[in-house]
Q: What sequence folds into this?
């Protein structure tokens, strides 16, 4: 593929994907994985889960994983194009609807759409967790790290950065 | 417990304040920027009441795409029209994009380094755990209602995406109308 074509493919895929990412960027992780690993062969499973990890420990919105994918595929231009494709269409939609949204407060159709989308985004997020877990949890120690982090994040108010730091040390020590 | 929010917003942010405010959110946000956006807007700056924040955020969630990014546009539009939306978005996305690009460059050189690979493998495993906790927190209220319909819809979406690898647009195009229609009939 020529460099220009790669950018067009990135822009098209991620713009389309953003419009179906109900529940946010993390809900679209499986679709990104399907595209980047299974369909386009831009990277392998391990590289994808590396990028998921780097996006999680970077400050800012989780959507930033698309910047990493874009850079990996096509350098600076790829990072820029992919980030723009992922944000501009839905932001335009947000800008247009923001002006009229308050007018429909309490409308039955609005409540139905909001309530109807919740189970969907839950299913998508659960699929995300499954897809990344399959890539990341390659050993019993890794599975244990996942389970402990999930329990700490669910049951306590401990900053997850601590579990991330400990997990990084366990990884560095070669225990995974 | 947090102190109750004030009943009405008293302050109107300027474009500069909007930009700086969202830069702050983007740099403090870890594992998602939403809690930081709420803290800045409702608690620290008092640009919105808690109810107004929820209302504006419900729109950001309702729209497809990254929620916090949508929210920055909704919020910016409210206080500064198109220019407000642009500066809020630039503030939220600018610093993270620069930081992550630096990380991407680093990874492109050292991604094959065994030590880095091991560190990231550990962090990936923990990051999955955090995601699972988020899913569990979302699932709990849905399952507690006792209704079987929402869990079944969620399960169909999960199976289609995670196990059958159906492209996302197809899943949404089929499931979203069904799910919304059911919600419509059961107010």
A:
């Amino acid at each position: 593929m020529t460099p220009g074509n790669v950018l067009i493919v990135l822009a098209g895929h991620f713009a389309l994907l953003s419009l179906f990412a109900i529940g946010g960027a993390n809900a679209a992780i499986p679709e990104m994985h399907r595209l980047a690993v299974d369909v386009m062969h831009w990277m392998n499973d391990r590289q994808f889960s590396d990028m998921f990890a780097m996006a999680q420990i970077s400050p800012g919105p989780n959507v930033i994983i698309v910047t990493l994918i874009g850079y990996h595929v096509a350098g600076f231009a790829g990072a820029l194009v992919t980030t723009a494709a992922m944000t501009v269409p839905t932001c335009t939609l947000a800008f247009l609807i923001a002006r009229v949204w308050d007018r429909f407060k309490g409308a039955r159709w609005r409540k139905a759409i909001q309530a109807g989308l919740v189970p969907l985004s839950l299913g998508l997020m659960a699929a995300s967790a499954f897809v990344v877990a399959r890539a990341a949890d390659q050993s019993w120690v890794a599975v244990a790290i996942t389970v402990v982090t999930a329990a700490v994040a669910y049951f306590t108010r401990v900053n997850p950065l601590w579990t991330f730091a400990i997990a990084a040390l366990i990884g560095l020590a070669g225990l995974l | 417990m947090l102190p109750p929010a004030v009943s009405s917003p008293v302050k109107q942010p300027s474009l500069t304040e909007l930009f700086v405010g969202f830069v702050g959110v983007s740099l403090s946000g870890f594992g998602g920027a939403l809690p930081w956006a709420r803290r800045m807007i409702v608690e620290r700056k008092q640009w919105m009441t808690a109810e107004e924040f929820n209302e504006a955020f419900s729109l950001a969630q309702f729209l497809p795409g990254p929620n916090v990014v949508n929210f920055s546009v909704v919020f910016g539009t409210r206080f500064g029209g198109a220019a407000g939306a642009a500066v809020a978005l630039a503030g939220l996305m600018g610093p993270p994009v620069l930081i992550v690009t630096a990380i991407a460059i680093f990874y492109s050189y050292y991604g094959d380094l065994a030590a880095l690979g091991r560190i990231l493998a550990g962090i990936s495993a923990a990051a999955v755990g955090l995601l699972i906790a988020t899913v569990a927190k979302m699932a709990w209220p849905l399952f507690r209602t006792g209704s079987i319909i929402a869990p079944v819809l969620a399960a169909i979406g999960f199976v289609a995406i995670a196990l059958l690898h159906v492209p996302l647009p197809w899943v949404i195009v089929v499931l979203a109308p069904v799910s919304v229609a059911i919600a419509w009939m059961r107010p």
Notes: The mean pLDDT of chain B is 87.
